[in-house]
Amino acid sequence: MTTPAPDAAPVFRMRGVAKSYAMGEVTVHALRGVDFELREGEFLVLLGPSGSGKSTLLNILGGLDVPTDGEVWYRDQALSGADRNRLTEFRRAHVGFVFQFYNLIPSLTARENVALVTDIAPRPLDAAEALTLVGLGARLDHFPAQLSGGEQQRVAIARAIAKRPDVLLCDEPTGALDIETGRQVLRALRDIHRQTGTATAVITHNAAIAQMAHRVVTLADGRVASERQNPHPADPDELAW
To answer: Which pLDDT belongs to residue 237?
Structure first.
């Protein structure tokens, strides 16, 4: 992977972001004063155990949630005070999501699942082109039940990239997969990043995956515990977990 320039502009910036939830009489502090950036052309891994705040941080970046306190910017656009309609437009125009579970519609083919996004995007990739980018050019007309778990996740990646997002946010994309299938999915993410340069953030509890990132941010108890650059990102085939 080509390492982004050290002075690359941030796609996202967080300053002092906190997120709290009320659960009955208990207040849960998911994020506690987080400062964070995702930069142009970067492949970043957010690492941490369950409950560390990774998914909450990703959801706030992607406009699926809003902070209790602090500020969030997408480039020069403030997101922290945006209403629901503005966040919906932001997600539709700029963000691609990949989740642990594929969320494919069983009655639609791979091509048709991807076309759900291309039909509403302003400048989409052709669905077949997006599937070819993730190595599924020969499986366009297969239904999810005819695809392996790794192939279904690659359909989900194709769906996410088909609208040409400015940023790709991936929440435990290999969490439901075995090691070899997980490598296939990581190879697809790496190849997409190489070909498009899309800023990509992958959250995981699996420390091995961090080896393929340009930068690794570790969360613990809702705070940034550490941050490090990785001068020599590993190939997915080199990972072992």
So the answer is: 84
Res 48: pLDDT:
92
Tokens 């987080």 appear where?
34
Query: What are the structure tokens assigned to 93, written together?
Result: 């125009």
pLDDT at residue number 146: 97
Closest of 239, 103, 235, 98 to residue 180, by C-alpha: 239
Report whether 71 contacts 78 (CB < 8 A).
Answer: yes
CA 23 to chain centre: 27
The pTM score is: 0.90
- Amino acid 179: pLDDT: 85
Q: If we measure between CA atoms, which residue out of 218, 217, 212 comes closest to residue 1?
A: 212
CA separation (Å) from 46 to 55, 61, 74, 200, 227? 9, 13, 18, 11, 9
Report whether 176 contacts 99 (CB < 8 A). Answer: no
**CA atoms of 218 and 86, how far apart (whole Å):** 30
Q: Pick out the chain residues at pLDDT < 50.
A: none
* pLDDT in the model for residue 6: 59
Angstrom distance (rounded) from CA 54 to CA 72: 16
Domains of the chain, with CATH numbers? 40-64+83-238 (3.40.50.300)
The set of long-range contacts for 177-182, using a CB threshold of 8 Å and a minimum separation of 24, is: 177/149, 177/150, 177/153, 179/240, 179/241, 181/148, 181/149, 181/150, 181/153, 182/150
Distance, in Å, from the CA atom of 178 to the CA atom of 150, rounded to the nearest integer, reads: 9
* Confidence at residue 139, expressed as pLDDT on a 0 to 100 scale: 94
